[in-house]
Amino acid sequence: KNEVEQSPQNLTAQEGEFITINCSYSVGISALHWLQQHPGGGIVSLFMLSSGKKKHGRLIATINIQEKHSSLHITASHPRDSAVYICAVDHYGGATNKLIFGTGTLLAVQP
Amino acid sequence: DVKVTQSSRYLVKRTGEKVFLECVQDMDHENMFWYRQDPGLGLRLIYFSYDVKMKEKGDIPEGYSVSREKKERFSLILESASTNQTSMYLCASSSEMFVGGKNIQYFGAGTRLSVL
């Protein structure tokens, strides 16, 4: 079983829909990251959070530490949101932190 | 803005060739990472470095080596490329890594390597 699980693996939505991507993890963490990867490869960091909720534009990320679960929401989705969304956790093990990645959610938003 | 630059976007090599993938960052970050990304497997850590000339194995170091002679540059070396090393390779850097520190990693655009 992967230490970081994302669902769904693939998601197709119509423009304007509200989207939710889920991430569950099984290890102790100091923080959780949501990343976005557009076709062509480059990855950008969207959020880093260790508690509660963060919002940036139409993107909202929440985390429940007790339940070891995080969600990424996209409101009023747009075709330019089409990308792979990756959840990663900052796992504290030993002297160094290490990022453990989920396998990603491929989102396609159709006009 | 942090910039992490990978020397090639696409690379085609033959089995047995020695391959160098170069990564340069311009933010004076101590930590640098090499990952490979394969469908269904996500990003897997090959090697990382937390200082010049320091390196540590990640989860899948077999068949790879690294070099960090200068703080800004981290090279991934495939000593003898094999077809199972065909993948997307991503370099990243961060300013803090240790327990309690922030670990925002900044990624390069990736190098898609095909080994024939």
Which spans of chain B of ≥5 residues are poorly predicted at pLDDT below 50?
A: none
Average of the residue pLDDT scores of chain A: 91
Number of strands of chain B: 11
Helix and strand element order of chain B: EEEEEEEEEEE
SSE pattern of chain A, N- to C-terminal:
EEEEEEEEEEE
**Strand content of the residues of chain A, in percent?**
over 45%
Count of separate DSSP helical elements of chain A: 0
Structural class based on helices, strands and sheet pairing of chain B: mainly beta
Q: Termini distance of chain A?
A: 36 Å
CA-based shape of chain A: globular
Task: Name the average pLDDT of chain B.
Answer: 91
Helix content of chain A: under 10%
Largest chain-chain contact? Answer: A-B, 25 and 26 residues
Give a count of the beta strands of chain A, DSSP E runs of length 2 or more: 11
Mind telling me the C-alpha Rg of chain A?
A: 14 Å
Which class best fits the helix and strand makeup of chain A?
mainly beta
Are there runs of chain A of 5+ residues with pLDDT below 50, and where?
none
Question: Could you tell me the strand content of chain B as a percent range?
Answer: over 45%
Query: Main sheet of chain A, how many strands, which sense, barrel?
Result: 6 strands, mixed
User: How would a crystallographer describe the biggest sheet of chain B?
Assistant: 7 strands, mixed
Oligomer: heterodimer
What does this entry look like structurally?
The complex is a heterodimer of chains A (111) and B (116). Chain A is built from no helices and 11 strands. With 111 residues, chain A is an all-beta fold. In chain A, strands 2, 4, 5, 9, 10 and 11 form a 6-stranded mixed beta sheet that branches. In chain A, strands 1-3-8-7-6 form a 5-stranded antiparallel beta sheet, with no helix packed on it. In chain A, strand 4 (29-37) and strand 5 (43-49) form a beta hairpin. The model of chain A has no long low-confidence stretch (mean pLDDT 91). Chain B is an all-beta fold. Helices cover 0% and strands 55% of the residues of chain B. Chain B contains no helices and 11 strands. In chain B, strand 7 (64-70) and strand 8 (73-78) form a beta hairpin. Chains A and B meet through strand 4, strand 5, strand 9 and strand 10 of A and strand 5, strand 9 and strand 10 of B.
